[in-house]
User: What shape does this take?
Amino acid sequence: MSRKPYERPVSKTTWYMRNGRYRKYMLREVTCLLVGFYSFFAICALAILAEGSPEAWTSFLESQQNGFWITVHALALVYYLVYMTFDWFKLAPKAMPLQLGEQKLADGYIIVAHYVAWIVVTAIIFWLAKVF
Amino acid sequence: MNTRELEIEVLRYDPEQDSEPHFQSYRVECHEDWAILDALNFIKEELDTTLAYRWSCHMMVCGSCGMMVNGEPVLTCKTFVRDLPDKVRIEPLENFPIERDLVVVLDDVMEKFQRAKPYIVRKDPPPEGKEYVQPRSALYKFKQYTMCVNCMCCYAACPQYALDKDFIGPAVLALAHRYNIDSRDQGKSERLDILADHDGVWNCSFVGACSEVCPKSVDPAAALQQMKLDGAKEFWLQKLPGGKS
Assistant: This one.
């Protein structure tokens, strides 16, 4: 008897539609587009700042202060928090488990430590930016 | 004893007759306390002796009864009729070629297991006449990874392996990690090709499906992320003045 194993085809373009787990993963990975957009946005802002003209900078800031841009930034922030930050912080204990003697430190401590570090870093950035 | 009739659709493939697999439906009066493996055994014994599938222990130890049940990779001995709807679809583990019916070809992962050197590698000889002493705290670092029964459900769940068969994959990498972090082992450098190669841990994009489906809670995704951190740390330590090359 000769063997004739059957290879099931896998779609390279629609594989992530196979189940909810993959779809959720893709929703997380799509945040790379936001990272790309905000990198570009930050470069544009820096370029305007580098012009050295206070008027240009003020007009750039004013261009952001309307309903459209505030909505875009708010939605981007919410999407990023839900599909990137929360997800990654939840997964952090997998990548960096801590063992104290014979006991593994509960995941909750590692997750909370990440949130605390995030708040501290955010506060420092806000302080440097003179937000408060 | 409560019974319930299930319509069980099984993917059949006879390499001598079929050009591609097809579903065959069976109506089985199942006891509520049956595992779906019991239903397969009933089909094999009472309805259709030609059905081919693997199983051995019926107690989550041998790892041979991994199959797709309603699209999820599971051990069929651990998946109970009472938790399933009236219509159940059983397919061979995804991402592997089908040998016959529910039996898949595992040659690829078997070869990868060998590459991982899944045994303790020693450079120094053991103390004369003595065993390698290991404190319990060192055992607990890797004990979870020793629970793997090689059922390959993680490979069936991994989209990265589905798209790229060169990827070493979750169970093998988790096993390599298990030996790398074993305090008695000195073979980490010999497993570097598994760890650092493109087909190794860096091909994992952390979908995390492997850990979600693992019937033994081994958490291969955790092992892979730890290996990435470890690899990155070693890379940068080498860059430091006086770092070993």
In short: The longest helix of chain B spans residues 220-239.
